[in-house]
């Protein structure tokens, strides 16, 4: 073989090796890009896991604390929106069993929660996340000098109670029965906020509401403790609903409520630990 032919074959071998190396590098690079893209996508998917609206039906007494927790939830999970429907637990439960779309139900009593669970509309077992105790709300400065539950039975005093079907009304009736007291209010209200508003507007002299509502009202009312309230403390259960449109966000919101941060917001509002 001539020197020229040997040089040509050596050149072809080098070129072939170079091409193979380039192909290997290209394949490796392609594989790396694919892996990186997949990892990036998975990471984005993880961070964007929660999105959309989570709808929470909650007892009226939870309005201030849950509104604060809703804002915290939205900050922790960008792209989510928490919407609330606050009201009497019994009417909220009836709405849920009637087909109203919601993700979470937080009730002011196990009895009203049972309306939902008995119909099979809950996912899992409700968990008690706080408790609440009654207090008498009077006009600022307590001009009628109300000092006990018995004082509410005085003639001429305009007193408001929650309806007996509402947890705050059932608890008030329990306290009255335990004290063997009879009280005829000027009105029965459908939720605790409505009862409190009657006093805030000076349409009533007093109302039996929750400590949390007295705290939330600030200087608009004055609170009076009464010992019988210790025998009528309400447990508040929370549950994800079976047909929750946003089940993952529902779980996350319940987790926030039960977390140390959530419990801090609730205890600062006056709720008792479960």
Automatic annotation (TrEMBL):
Residues 1-29 form the signal peptide. The keyword Cytoplasm does not apply. The lineage of its organism: Bacteria, Bacillati, Actinomycetota, Actinomycetes, Kitasatosporales. Belongs to the bacterial solute-binding protein ModA family. InterPro entries: ModA, ModA/WtpA, TAT_signal. It comes from the Bacteria. The keyword Cell inner membrane does not apply. PROSITE patterns: PROKAR_LIPOPROTEIN, TAT. Keywords: Metal-binding, Signal. This is Molybdate ABC transporter substrate-binding protein. It comes from Streptomyces phaeochromogenes. Gene3D superfamilies: Periplasmic binding protein-like II.
